[in-house]
Structure formats: C-alpha cells, structure tokens
Amino acid sequence: MPATSTTDPLPTGAVPVPPSLEQVVILARYQLRDYLRARRFLILFALVVAIGAIVTIVVAHYRPAGIIDSASGLYGSLWGGGVPFVIVLAAVFFGGDAIAGEFQNKTGYFLMGLPVRRATVYAGKYIAAFLASLAIVVVFALIILGNAVVYLGPDAFVGSLALSFLLAVVYLMAVLGVTFLFSSLFKVSTYGTILTAILFLFGFSLLQTLVQVLADTTPWFVISYAQSVIGAVLSDNCFTQPGTHDCTSGGFSQTVTNPTVPEGVAIMVAYFLVTALVGLVRFEREEFS
Amino acid sequence: MSNPSIVVSSVTKRFGSFVAVNNLDLKIEGSKCVGFLGPNGAGKTTTLKVLVDMIFPDAGECFLNGVSVRRERKRALGACGVLIESPEIYPSLTPNEALGMVGELRGLSPSERKRRTEEVLAEVKMSEWGDKKFGKFSKGMKQRLNIAAALVHDPQILMLDEPATGLDPRGMTEVRDIVRGLKRRQRLVFMSSHILSEVTDVCDEVALIDRGRLLFYDTLENVTSRFARGQASIDVSFRRPLTDDERTKAVPSLAGVEQVETLDPRRLRLRFSGGLETQERILEALVGLHLGVVGFQESNSALEEIYLSQIQKGD
Q1: Cα dihedral value A169, A174, A176, A180, nearest 10
Q2: Cα–Cα distance between A90 and A94 in angstroms, integer?
Q3: In this complex, is the C-beta atom of B75 within 8 Å of any C-beta atom belonging to chain A?
Q4: pLDDT score at A156
Q5: Between the CA of residue A186 and those of A101, A105, A193, A268, B284, what are the distances in Å?
C-alpha cells in the first residue's frame, strides 16, 4: 500500500473556519432569504391577509358591541383568538419540513459536507423559521391594530397588547420547538407537518379538556393551557383573566383557574427548551444514509 | 505545508445485519488522484460518508489531515471539498448566493468570496447562470454547481462521489480537466467512480472495494502489471468488415500479437506484451497488411478486466 506514513495535523485550510455562533447567523440569513423568496411565504402571507380581511369585513358589517366598544374586547377577540392559529400555521409552513426536508430534499447532503456542526445547522434553521414566522405574526398584528385604530381611535394603543404580543412570541418559540422536534423525528416532512398541525389545532385542546373534566386537574403541562395567557392579559372578563378567581355568572359562583403570566411563560419556555434539546439530540444522531 | 492525507482506520459500518464496510483500512497521502472503485453496494459511498461524518462508524475512525472527523468534524472538514450523493441546494438561492454562503461558512473574506465564486463558476462553465435560481436548473447544471461549491475554498483535499453523475460528455471531460488541474496544484483527490476510463484517465492510484472490504490499493501501473501480468491491449478500427481469414489468420500472425478479440466486424482488440515498442511494431505491420485501418486507441480493458476478475474472485 503506497503512502502509509502518518502526518502531523495540518492547519485546516488557508482560512480559519468562523466560530459556530457566527456560522449560525450566516446559515440563518441565507435560510431566511430562501424562506422569504419561496412560494410558501407568499401563500402564508396571502392567507393571513385574507383572514385579516375577512375579520375586518365581518366586524365592519355587524359592528358587534362587545368587540368595537373596548380595547379589551377587540384585542381579546380578534388578536387573542386569532394569533395562536396564525402562529401554528406559520410554524407548520416554515418548521414542518425544516429538518426532515434536509433528508428528503437532499439539501442536507450539501450542508453536511461543510465544516459546520449539526447544532449550528439546527439553530440556524430554527432562527430563520422563527423570523419568517414572526414576520407573518407582525402582519396579522398590523391588521388587527388597523381595525383597533378605526374603532377605538387614540385609545387603540394599550400596554397589555404589547405584553400579549411578547407572549405570542414566546408561544411561537415553543410551537416551533415542537415542530422542529417532529421534523427531526421523521425523514419525510409530511409526517412532522401533519402531526404538528393535528396536535396544535385539536390535540392539545382536547387533552386540556379531558384533563380538566375527567381528572379535575389543572392541565399545567399542556401548552394550550399556557397559551391562553396571550388572550387572557387583554381580557377584563373574570372567567378568562390570568390567575385564580371566584367569578359569578347568572347567579352562580365558580372558582376559575387560568395560568398567570409567569406560569404561562414558564410552561411555554419549558416546551421550547425540552423540544429544542430533544430535537437537537435527535438531529445529531441522525445519519445521512 | 505537510502532505494532505486521508486515513480510514479499521472502519466497520453495519445497517442492521448488512455489513456495508468491513474493518476497512486505507491510508492515502500526498498530492494525487485516487480512484475508489467497486460494484454497486460495495461500500464506496458509505466509506465516503463516514469520512465526512454524514454517517457514523460502528467501529474505527477516520482522519483528514490527521484530524479525527468524528471528534473534530469542523476542523477536519475545513480543508476539504466534498461532493456526495448529488445534493440539492436551496431552490430559491442563486449560484452566486449559494457559493457565497459556502465561502462565508468557510471563512472567506467578501472579496475572496466574490473572486472565488467567479473563478469556480467559470471553471464549471456556469458563469452566465450566476444570478438564476437553483430551482430552474437541470440535474447536470446542479451537479456542476455542486462541484463548484466543493471547490470554492480551493480545498487541499477533494472527495467526490460519482462526480460525473448527470453530466453530459462535455461535462465529464470538464470534470476530468478540473481534477487534473487540482493535481497540478498539489491537491489530493479521492474519487469514487463507475467509469473506469475516467479513472484510468485521471487517477494515479486505485482502491478497489467489494462487500465492504478493500481488495487492493496501489498505483495504476502496479495494479496493471500485477494483475494483468504486463499485458496491454489496443482497439483497432477498420474501414470495412474483415474477412474470417483476416481476423483469424492474418492479424493473429503479426509479431507481438498474443490474442485477438473481435469486438465487431470492423473492430478488433489486440493484446500484446512488451510496451510501446511492441505496440508501434504491431501498428506498423497492421497498416502494411492494407486492411483499411482507420483508427486505433489504447483499450481501457486492462483495468476493467482486473476489476471484473477481482470482483468475481470474491463471489
């Protein structure tokens, strides 16, 4: 066998490879560019604008007093009720195939030949998906804010909306974390996408109801329970406000338990951390065979 | 700068009960091109994937320039250009952007990125496509750009898995030219291929693998002399179909000819020993027979026959 002597380690190339953190930013930037140019972004953008338009037309036509008379009513109904749906849509659109697509579309074979850590790829793609989704959430927020300005005038801007927006951002982080985890579990992107959509649109809500009704337990471990703080901070309704309250309705008194803001944030952050960690470990171990 | 090196040390890789790579040892060092041959399923691509940490060995370890791929992936791949499995690039990006991304991830400065992007796009004859999106490209165009991406940082080691996949004849020739250029620039090229003529044409050494085991690794000359026992062959073309007498008597009786094989009525393969001098004498004598010789070329059959005999031996 020719040439068998062992050599000293060489310098790894003429130029040093950038630190991993810098590579995360580079990857996120190019991935975001790919997302923003892709048809899926336009489709989702059009979908959210259409949802906003329908909401605007319906409110303008019926002018429901509970919505157009107060900031809490308007934001609680339109923003609090709509943004979780928009977030799930965005996460599915941008995160559903984020990792599985690297195997299915063979783009991973391009990235894996480069001197980057798998964690760098995972983080870069997550940040890009987060920013693309955030752009969609901002579009939805602007539509709702436009409605508020029309109906409420100078009273449209309330501090609780900013808090709610921040909570929506935390929820987006968690939903994307779960989506990336499912995406890393399968090499076919459809499975992860469908599983995420089913869980967030029906699954978690169903689980929350079952836990509350059948086990009579506070479903603190279910993300849909935590997510309710997004609308709750805007509400002046005793039944939906954060925390535990004795509420009266129709002569009946009832103790209602909703998550407080710190509880909601803690649950959502926990979902993000656990799913991101498990998804990352899974991606680190997955082979491009 | 030390010699570039690729080391596969006792690597075994299983997929369930199937052993794709079986205790493989391979050490390649220096500026050269090494052809990595073997039938489908022999373990070529698996070996290359283990070498770049796309899949993980069950046993053993790989080193690039002395750096462990598994333990220091980033450092090990820093000096390497890799093309495995004809990858896809994000469809909304343009070649300029994708090569810019590769250059940026590899630490090239903006001016270097621009210069190298232009150079490698010119090298793969894709300069005019620099601003078009990948999604619109044919398979061959994508493969050219994958080759460009592997070259953008002027790697010390280049690992190519079937680089001619999807390329037209012109593209294949260009890949060979690129490999020759890399050899001139003191690079190490490790290339799997099914195209034996391509290997014969550009490679200095060949490694043959079958069922995950290395059958041999040596220089092309040593392989040919060891396994073909010094025999060479030329393919000769004639203007007209030869008669039976011409094929079976006149040509075989020429001095130096050891065996004649009829490829078709107008083409013969002549085997001989004795190197270029014998080849020259045979060709002169052939022309002297006035059989209508219109062309001849050195046959690629030597490596092909060695390949087939070694693979069959393992069956």
Answers
A1: 160
A2: 6
A3: yes
A4: 80
A5: 9, 13, 10, 23, 66
The total domain count for chain B is: 2
A117 near B CB under 8 A: yes
Domain termination site, one of B195, B218, B241: B218
Residue B223 lies in a domain: no
H helices of chain A, in order, are: 20-37, 39-62, 65-68, 71-74, 80-95, 100-104, 108-111, 118-152, 159-185, 189-198, 204-214, 223-227, 229-232, 261-285
**In chain A, which residues have their Cβ closer than 8 Å to the Cβ of B92?**
33-35, 37-38
B255 and B201 in one domain? no
Are residues B195 and B242 part of one domain? Answer: no
Q: What's the pLDDT tens digit per position in B174-198?
A: 888 888 888 888 889 999 988 887 8
Give pLDDT tens digits for A159-209. 889 999 999 999 999 999 999 999 999 888 888 889 999 999 889 999 988
**Strand order through the sheet with B267-273:** B257-264, B267-273, B231-238, B293-298
* A56, burial (CB in 10 Å: exposed 0-12, middle 13-18, buried 19+): middle
DSSP-assigned states of every residue in B134-196? GGG--HHHHHHHHHHHHHTT--SEEEEESTTTT--HHHHHHHHHHHHHHHHTT-EEEEE-S-H
The ipTM, to two decimals, is 0.84
Contact B77 A9 (CB under 8 A): no
Range(s) of the domain holding residue B283: 228-313
**CATH number reported for the structural domain that contains residue B259 in this entry:** 3.30.70.100
- Give, rounded to a whole angstrom, the gap between the first and last alpha carbons of chain B: 43
B159 and B93 inside one domain: yes
Domain around A271: 20-285
Which residues of A fall within a CB distance of 8 Å from B77?
113-115
